Amino acid sequence: MIRAVFFDAGATLVHPSPPVEEIYARELAADGAVFTREELDAALTRAWEEVHAETAADRYGGVRGEAAFWQAFLNRVRGSLDGGVVSGDCFARLARHFRSPSAWALYPDVLDTLDALERRSLPLAIVSNWDSHLPALLDALDLSRRFRSVAVSAIEETGKPEAEIFRRVCARLDVPPNACLHVGDSRREDYEGARSAGLHALLLDRQGKHTDVEHRIESLMEIPENLTRF
Fold first, then answer.
1. Residue-range definition of the domain harbouring residue 169
2. Are 198 and 121 contained in the same domain?
3. Which one in 17, 26, 53, 93 has a CA-CA gap of 20 to 30 Å to 224?
4. How far is Cα 158 from Cα 166, in angstroms, rounded to an integer?
5. Are 9 and 31 in the same domain?
6. According to the model, what pLDDT value does residue 62 have?
7. What's the mean pLDDT when you consider all of the chain?
8. Which of 60, 76, 103 is the last residue of a domain?
9. Percent with pLDDT over 70 in the chain
C-alpha cells in the first residue's frame, strides 16, 4: 500500500514560461551572439547532456558554487554558437530572469492532483535535481506548504538517480521505501532511480515518448487511480 508520494519538480510540477529557448535566444542575441534557432537548440541540448553526464552531487556547483556553474554553462552554450563567452551583463540578466517566480508556471494538472492526494491524507514530498533556489521558488508559487519534505540535490549534495536522496526523504517521512511512490519525467533519474532505491515509480510521459514503460502516465491526474497498482 502506498503511504507517501514524492514528486520531481522541473517538467513535472513546474516549467519555464516563456520557454528556456526563447529567453536564451533573446539574451544571447542582445549579447552579440550570432546563431540560428536550430544552432541554439543544438547547443542547449549538448550542454544539458554534458551536465547530466555528471553525477547529481556535482551539478550546479553546490550551494556555494552555483554562480560559477551557471557561468560555465552559459559559456559552453555561447562557445558552441560562435566561440565567444557571455558578458557579465548577459549573465546577470539571465540569472535575474530565472530566479524570478514570474518566469515559472505550474502545469494545469498540478493543483487538482495535490488536492486529490491530500484528501487521502498522503504525505507529499519533492525530490529534485535543482540548484538551491528551488525552495524560494516553491514558496513564491505557494507550493511549499503542500509538501512535508523538499529535497534538492544542490543542498543535499546528492541527487537522482542515486538512492541516497530518495532514502533520506523516506526517513524524514518515516515511511519505508516500498510504501512510497515517486513520480517524475526522467526515465533514468526518476523512474529507474526511484525503483533502484526500493520505491515504486510512475514515469510522467506527457508526450507519449516512452510507451514501452509499464508504469507510465500522461497526466498527474492519473496518479490517484494508479495507487492501487502497487
1. 4-15+104-229
2. yes
3. 17
4. 10
5. no
6. 64
7. 95
8. 103
9. 97
Number of domain units in the chain = 2
Question: Does residue 6 contact residue 183 with C-beta atoms inside 8 Å?
Answer: yes
The yes-or-no verdict on residue 200 having pLDDT over 90 is yes
Backbone φ/ψ region at 35: left (φ over 0), alpha (ψ -120 to 50), beta: beta
Give tens-digit pLDDT for 51-73.
Answer: 878 777 677 766 667 888 899 89
Residues 17-38 pLDDT 10s = 999 999 999 999 999 999 999 9
Q: Which pLDDT score is estimated for 63?
A: 60
Is this prediction's pTM over 0.85? yes
Task: Output the pLDDT for position 53.
Answer: 80
Which residues are paired to 37 by β-bridges? none
* Domain co-membership, 92 together with 114: no
- 194's CB contacts (< 8 A; 6+ apart) are 6, 160, 166, 182, 184, 200, 201
C-alpha cell of residue 160: 537522482
Among the listed residues 117, 115, 40, 111, the one whose alpha carbon sits nearest the alpha carbon of residue 80: 40
